[in-house]
Amino acid sequence: MYRKSSLFTGLQGAKGVSIDRQRAMERRDFDYYEVRLRDVKLEDITSDEDNAEILQRLRDQDTSLDAIRITDEYNDNSCFTAGEGDDLGWLGYFIGKSKYLEDLIIYSWGEGQNIEAFIEGINRNQSIVKLHIDTDLRGASFRNLLPFFRNNNNLTHLYLDFEIGLECAQSIASALGDGQCQSLKKMSFENSNLSDEGFAVIATALRTCPQLEELHLERNNIGLMGCIALGETLRGWGTSNLTTLDLDNNQIDDQGLQALAAGMTNSSLEELFLSNNLVTAVGDEGAEVLADGLKGNTSLSSLYFDSDESNITDVGWAAFSKVLCDPSSINSTFLSNHIIKWIGENSPLDIRRYLALNGYAQSAMTKILKSHSDLDMEPFFQLKLKLLPVVVNWFESARSRMLANDLGESIQRQSLPSRELSALYKFVRGMPALTVTSYWQQLVMNAQAKRRWIGDEMRRLEDERLKLDGERSSLDHDEEAAWARLGGRPTKSEGEGSSNFASGAKRRRQE
Fold first, then answer.
1. Could you read off the pLDDT of 99-128 as tens digits, one per residue?
2. pLDDT at residue number 424
3. Among the listed residues 139, 135, 129, 71, the one whose alpha carbon sits nearest the alpha carbon of residue 100
4. Do 447 and 439 meet the contact criterion of CB atoms below 8 Å apart?
5. Which partner from 190, 240, 428, 502 sits 20 to 30 angstroms from 446, CA to CA?
C-alpha cells in the first residue's frame, strides 16, 4: 500500500507544507539529521510507509538488510522509492551509520531532493561492498563522493552506468589515483559515453590499482589514446590480477590493439572482448595482430569478436591456426598455445578442433601425434638410453588419454602402436653409433688415466732414488771415518789377515 505523507503533514496545513518544502530545499548536512533524529517519527519523515520501514531497519542495524535499491517505483522490500520530501536526506543519514549494508544500487533519484545531503551520508559509510550508480548525479559532482572512497576500505565493485564527461572522469581519476581504492576488484563504465581522452585519464589513474580483476568498458568511444594509456598501466602493473577486459563496441583499431598487447605480456588475462571494434573489421592484418598477441600467452582462455563481420580470410585464420598448433617441428608444436578455448564466433573447423583440444589435459600430446606422423628421435640421442623409458611412458600415456573426438579417432586410425614401434626402432637403431663412440671415448679416458698413473709413479721412484743416494753417501762417510780410526784402509794381504782374525773371533764366540 502506498501512503503519501509529506514531512510536516498535519502540523501547519497547506501553508506549512509549502514552507517545509522550501526548507527541504535548503542545504542540510549530517549534523542536521543527527539533531532531529530524537524528535521525529520515521513515518512522518518519508513519503511512503515502505521507505519508513527501510529507514527503521537501517536505524535498528538489521543484519538482514544488506542491499538497497533506489528507484522511482516500488518493486520489493529492498526497494526505496525516491519521492517527495526529504526521503533521500534521511536515507543518506541512516546509510552513513549502517554497519551491515553491502550493496547500494541507485537507479533513479525520482522526485527526491537533497541529493548532496544523501551523498554526504554515503561518505560516512564503511560497510558498502558494491556501489552501482545508474543515473546522473542531478547537478552534484562526482567529486563530492571522494570522501567515500577515502573512508571505505571494503568496496570491491564499482558500477557507473551514466554519461561521464571529462570533468567527471577527472574526479574518478582523483578517487583512484590517490591509492584510495586498494580493495576494488571490479569496475564497470558500460554505456557511459566516455571520450577517448576521458578514459585515458582514468586508465592512467588505474596504475595504483594492480589488484583489479575485472574491467568492463563497453560502448565508451575508446580509441588509440585510451589504449596507449591502458597498455602502459597494464605494463606498469607487472604481473597483474586482471582476468576480464571488456572493450566491446569501441573505436579500437590495429594500432590501438598493438598498444594494448604490449602491456599484456605478463598479464593473467583470461577473457578479452573486442566485438564491434575497428580492429575486427580490417581483415587479415587485424587477425595477425591478435594471433601475435597470443604467442606465449599462458592465461587467455577466451577472445571474443564477431567473425562474420571481421573480413578475415584463410590467410588471417592461418595465423591463428599456427599459434594453436605450429607443425614446423615437434618442439614448436609443444610450445604452441594450449590454453585458449574460444576465438571469435563461427571460426573455421580446424580452429574449432584445436580450441576443443585445448579444453582437455595433454592437448600438446594430441597435437604432436596429429601433426607429426613420423617422430624424429635423433634430437634425443644425446640423452642416450636414459630417455628410452621416457619415450615408452609417453606413448603409454598417449594411449590411455587419447581424446574421444574426431581428431583422436583420426590419430587412432594412423595406428598408434605402429608409430610407437617405429619411434623405438629409430631410437635403438641409433644406439650402435652411440656405442662405438662411447668405446673410443672410454679408450681415450683409460689412456689418459694410465698416463697420469705412470707419471705419478715416475715421480715417486725419483724421490726414492734421491733418498737412497743420500743414504749411500752417509754410509760412505761413516766407513771412511771408521778406517781413519783404524789407521787407514788395509792392503790386500792385510785385509785377508783381518778377515781370518774376524773368522777366528767368531768361532771362539760360538765355542
1. 999 999 999 887 657 788 889 999 999 999
2. 63
3. 129
4. no
5. 428
